[in-house]
Design brief:
This protein is of the alpha/beta class. The chain has 12 helices and 9 strands. Bound molecules: S-adenosylmethionine (SAM).
């Protein structure tokens, strides 16, 4: 028989320990339909290997364990990590890792699993972008990422060039994944209620990126520089961010886009790839 998690007593030391901690972005999901929706969007199957970021009180964790997945749950909050280790001991395929996801050596973690894995999480909103960038940039054998994020971040993840939401995150998401916003989730689905609406985003990680670029790392430096100074032209932002001669960038912008005063937010992923290759060529780097 499956051991049920203990019901927390109302009040007292235990209650205080497990009361939501704002500094860790703790907004726990309490809506079962939303929890099921996330696990369905991630298509969690028996035998799947899943990295869960921020299991919290284990609402998602439990569902994924019940589906027979191997779940590796990284939780920064010592009290919650210990509670999960104690109360979820019945789930033999669950490994609780107490620590900060941003400090985990995910390359080593992935080598230890030795299998492709999925990422499923109701992310702590205060570090959503650094977590996503880490997952996307490390070239890990991740097949898909299904995450709850703020609605505004979901908008940025799938934004098109020329819109005000479009930025470095949109380019990275487009380069590495095929993404869809699966559902919008109201604040009432959480305890405590966040001030903002949320969305579940599903990202299928691409085996091959949709564009070919000689030096992807150099392209992303260019992307970061282009969006680092949003109100500046591409020429000014890139020369400031990367220390490249203004004339060279103006020449590239004129030749590739017919407009030396174009802004970075107008450029598509394909444009950034062309620009990066062009700059590499004229700098004699590629
Ligand atoms: N998965 C739970 C749920 O859906 O109810 C909790 C989600 S809550 C939005 C985010 C969780 O991430 C919290 O449990 C929080 O303690 C944890 N967390 C915050 N920062 C973290 C970090 N840097 N590394 C790992 N976990 C973190």
């Amino acid at each position: 028989m499956e051991k049920r998690p203990k019901v927390l007593p109302c009040g007292g030391k235990q209650m205080k320990k497990n009361a939501p901690k704002k500094r860790f972005g703790q907004n726990f999901l309490k809506d079962y339909a939303v929890l099921e929706g996330i696990v369905d969007a991630a298509d969690v199957q028996e035998g799947d290997h899943i990295l869960e970021i921020g299991p919290g009180q284990g609402a998602l964790t439990r569902l994924m364990c019940q589906r027979g997945a191997y779940v590796y749950a990284v939780e920064i909050d010592k009290d919650l990590a210990h509670m999960l280790q104690r109360d979820f001991a019945v789930y033999e395929r669950l490994t609780v890792i107490q620590g900060d996801i941003l400090k985990q050596d995910l390359t080593k973690f992935s080598e230890q699993i030795g299998e492709p894995f999925k990422v499923v999480a109701n992310l702590p909103y205060y570090i959503t972008t650094p977590i996503l960038m880490k997952l996307l940039e490390l070239s890990l054998p991740i097949t898909q990422i299904t995450v709850m994020v703020q609605k505004e971040v979901a908008g940025r993840m799938v934004a098109a060039p020329g819109t005000k939401e479009y930025g470095a995150l949109s380019v990275a998401v487009r380069y590495h994944t095929q993404s869809t916003v699966e559902m919008e989730v109201p604040p009432e689905a959480f305890y405590p209620r966040p001030k903002v609406k949320s969305c579940v985003v599903h990202m299928k990680v691409l085996k091959e990126p949709p564009v070919k670029v000689k030096d992807p790392a150099a392209m992303f430096l260019l992307v970061k520089a282009a969006f680092g100074q949003r109100r500046k032209t591409l020429v000014n932002a890139v020369s400031h961010g990367m220390g490249i001669d203004k004339e060279k960038i103006a020449m590239a912008a004129e030749e590739l886009f017919g407009d030396p005063s174009i802004r970075g937010e107008k450029l598509s992923l394909e444009d950034f790839a062309r620009l990066s290759d062009y700059i590499g060529k004229v700098s004699g780097k590629t």
